[in-house]
């Protein structure tokens, strides 16, 4: 009953504080959208390249909307040209060899040139192949005509049993083999966002709940209302549970908004069950909540609360899957395993991208629950600081 | 008289600085006990030790026979802190309701209690306003109303009359007098001598020492002066002398 009273109060306070509301519900959407567009905008990169002595048909094949080609009329040094004109690369043909020099100041552009040149080479080969196929097709047609000729000369009874030969279907349209470059870049970049989405999702939920809940308990302490509260027969645990359930509801709403936004506005596909995604996010938010409440015990002001972010929140990003944990040094892997976000992001990745069912992520989910339990207990102990009984 | 609160030999230091020196007091039912002393004397520290919000370094506090700190006993205590600990974004009524529910006031008595306690401090008209729009005096009054919400047997009020105009002050004292008559015990702190005259029993505090105690009349007689301010000055002097000895 007292828990419900505290929960209700937190709710009313929260919904009257428009700034905090915006921070909880709008800021994550803003950041996610920003990331979404940032990772897309890579497709607009254009790399300047100089060419010398490259056949115009090959130049045409290399050319695409991410490449701007500058033909050099005289044999110039590749390095000098790149330096002088700030080109991203230089292509030169000598003795039947294609020599590509990269500026390599922007790996992005280097990658574009590499891919474009490789694509061009593959395309040229395909063209040659297609030409060869055409030739053989022409031969086949000729043979077919001859066959018809022979067929006509045979008696009708036999000719009926010989099926009409036709060219294999795939040979009819050699242009089927055409490739579209556009697919490669646009899709590969937007899928980077998709790959990282589970990590971002986990992080957003964690970060905002941590900050808001921590600051709210801190304010309760600094405005002396915590002392006042503890001068009533309320149990310390009731305060903790009241906060957990009050901000828990806020966290559910926040998670639902973020997940729905990702699906319907950003068009992200969630392969697994959306309910499992919500459940994991909620559990993660509860850990963030209990950590925020606990940490606020050690902060004297909101500023000091913010100072905990680089220590407690930021390092978790590195261990949440942005960098593959399996490739880390042993001691770093050990650190990853004491980070709630590591388990949260891993479970979310499995569900969102690998269509894992709930039972498949039970190990990570249990780890999150253990964190929650530990921090709830720590909070109960921390509350003793304010009242001994 | 039945002792409600007993404080025996309480010492308290902060950062190795001694704030309370061997404080002893008894608050009884039917009685208003006043702690009087200048700012910084240690009145709030005594209150906090009584409430169990601070632990004495030495000595003990018992309330209704229970050694403090004790959570259950808090149900019977109405407390008003020196600083107004209120929820600013809630209205006056919501603040009262919140504390009423924490004290387990029954649903059918809730509105009645809220209206009654707000009436004691003339706040009925302003209950719908958010506390952030309250003046300092209104906040004080709301704090006092909250301390009465569960109809407690013991009232512990830290400087309840600060910022309250004389007319309302009179009304509040009359109300407190009524509660004492009904058998409640009341402890208040003040640094105003006019308030001191209203108390049944006075403790004069200076630099963490209780320099003298007694009813206002008997103190004036004892020190052979005609007002409490002079009692305080005289008692302070004789206390200094005895300290030096
Ligand atoms: N938590 C604390 N830490 C350190 N010093 C304190 C603390 N609380 C009170 N004091 C000191 O104790 C003395 C008495 O304070 P207080 O009890 O608030 O006096 P009063 O209520 O009579 O004005 C003051 O000198 C004050 O600075
Ligand atoms: Mg004080």
What are the key terms here?
heterodimer; A: 389 residues; mainly alpha; D-Maltodextrin-Binding Protein, domain 2; 2 domains; 4-stranded mixed beta sheet; 17 helices; 70% helix; 6% strand; elongated; B: 245 residues; alpha/beta; Rossmann fold; 6-stranded mixed beta sheet; 4-stranded antiparallel beta sheet; 8 helices; globular; binds adenosine-5'-diphosphate; binds magnesium ion
Summarize the structure.
Chain B: GO terms for molecular function: ATP binding; ATP hydrolysis activity. The complex is a heterodimer of chains A (389) and B (245). With 389 residues, chain A is mostly helical.
Textual characterization of the structure:
The complex is a heterodimer of chains A (389) and B (245). Chain A is built from 17 helices and 4 strands. Chain A is mainly α. In chain A, helix 1 packs across helix 11, helix 4 crosses helix 6 and helix 9 packs antiparallel against helix 11 (236-265). With 245 residues, chain B is an alpha/beta fold. Chain B folds into 2 domains: 1-74 and 154-160 and 172-245, P-loop containing nucleotide triphosphate hydrolases (Rossmann fold); 77-152, no CATH class. In chain B, strands 6-7-8-3-9-10 form a 6-stranded mixed beta sheet, sandwiched between helices. In chain B, strand 7 (154-158), helix 5 (166-181) and strand 8 form a beta-alpha-beta unit. Chain B starts with a strand and ends with a helix. The mean pLDDT of chain B is 92. The complex binds adenosine-5'-diphosphate and magnesium ion. Residues 43-44, 82, 158 of chain B line the site of magnesium ion (MG).
